[in-house]
User: What shape does this take?
Amino acid sequence: MSEETTTTSSEQDTSAAGSKAAKKAEPKAASEAKPKAATAKKADAKPAEKKAAAAKPEAAIAAAATTTESKPAADASTGDQYAIVEASGTQLWLQPNRYYDVDRLSAEVGSEVTFGDVLLVSGSSGTTLGKPYVKEASVSLKVLAHRRGPKVIVYKMRKKKKTRRKNGHRQELTRVMVESITVGGKPLS
Assistant: This one.
C-alpha cells in the first residue's frame, strides 16, 4: 500500500504544473469566447449604424448650410471687433455689447465712463497695435451696477506654534457694459 500512495517530488511537480496549465487554459478559452460573442453583437449593430449614418449626412448638410448662412451676419457686427484696454493695473479684452466686471470705479450707476488707455484695436478694417497706446482710441462704457465679488478665504497657520488666522475678502467691483469702441472719433461698427 505504501508503494501505491508514494509519489516522487518530480511527479508532484508535473501534476501540479499540469493542473495549473489546465486552470490557465480554461479562462483563456472562456475569455476568447466572450469577445467573439461581443463582436457578433457589434457586427449586428454596425449595419443599423451605417443605415442611420447614411440618412444623417443629408440632414447634417442641410443643417450646416442654414447655420453657416446666419453666422457671418452675426460675426460681422460684433464678433470681430474688440479692444484690449489697460484699466486699474490689468489688461482687459473688451467687445461691444458685452458686460464685464472691473475693479470699483467712482461713478454713479447709469453714467458713462471712458477708458482712454487702449493698447490694441481690432475691427473689420484690420488690427491696430499701439506703441504703447493707440492714438485717439477710446472705449465708452455704461455703469450697470456696483457689486462685490465672491468671498475668498485667507487662512494662515504656523504649524507647531498654535497660531492661526482666518480672514475673508470680497473684492469691490463695478459691472460695466461696453457701448462702443472708437478710433479717431469714428466707431468701429
Q: What stands out?
A: Residues 2-77 form one domain. Residues 1-7, 29-33, 35-43, 49-76 have pLDDT under 50 and may be disordered. The CA atoms of residues 73 and 167 lie 50 Å apart.
